[in-house]
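Please decode residue identities from the backbone states below.
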């Protein structure tokens, strides 16, 4: 008769929303070979583990209403925490600059202040204002950001951000 030995280890790996997720490891040994089995489990009542990379959905509201009086909306989706708002807009061919900014922008270096946007919703999904933004936007509303300084997401969160393009044109 063969004897099989095994070991079981359960370790908490992270705490999310007050619930613990656990990593379970089982090693099974016999004289000829050993097998290692690994898996994850969550405490009862905890949300299912997030699979894949979290994504942020973005809506960009145009600066001026169309002929029907409604503002045009463009959409994009990105992985959380991987891109600056300016790069997302550029990659998706979404207009960022007013006329002056098209000619006189700094290319994303944070030294001109021409890439101003207003965050209408989802401010909590963005990084805090940088020192550059504090300098350029000190007399502007808290909802205004520089697109070249704004990181969308933090690699863990997901949700929706609504951005007003060229907010200085609103009247």
């Amino acid at each position: 008769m063969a004897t099989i030995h095994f070991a079981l280890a359960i370790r908490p790996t992270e705490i999310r929303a007050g619930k613990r997720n656990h990593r379970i490891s089982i090693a099974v040994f016999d004289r000829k070979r050993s097998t290692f089995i690994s898996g994850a489990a969550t405490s009862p009542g905890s949300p299912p583990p997030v699979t894949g990379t979290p994504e942020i959905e973005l809506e960009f509201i145009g600066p001026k209403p169309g002929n029907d009086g409604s503002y045009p909306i463009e959409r994009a989706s990105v992985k959380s925490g991987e891109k600056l708002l300016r790069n997302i807009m550029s990659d998706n061919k979404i207009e960022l600059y007013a006329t002056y900014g098209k000619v006189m922008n700094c290319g994303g270096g944070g030294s001109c202040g021409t890439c101003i946007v207003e965050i209408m919703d989802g401010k909590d999904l963005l990084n805090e204002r940088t020192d550059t933004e504090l300098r350029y936007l000190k007399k502007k509303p808290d909802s205004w950001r520089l697109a070249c300084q704004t990181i969308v997401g933090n690699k863990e969160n997901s949700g929706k951000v609504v951005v007003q393009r060229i907010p200085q044109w609103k009247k």
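Observation: Confidence is low (pLDDT under 50) at residues 8-25, 27-43.
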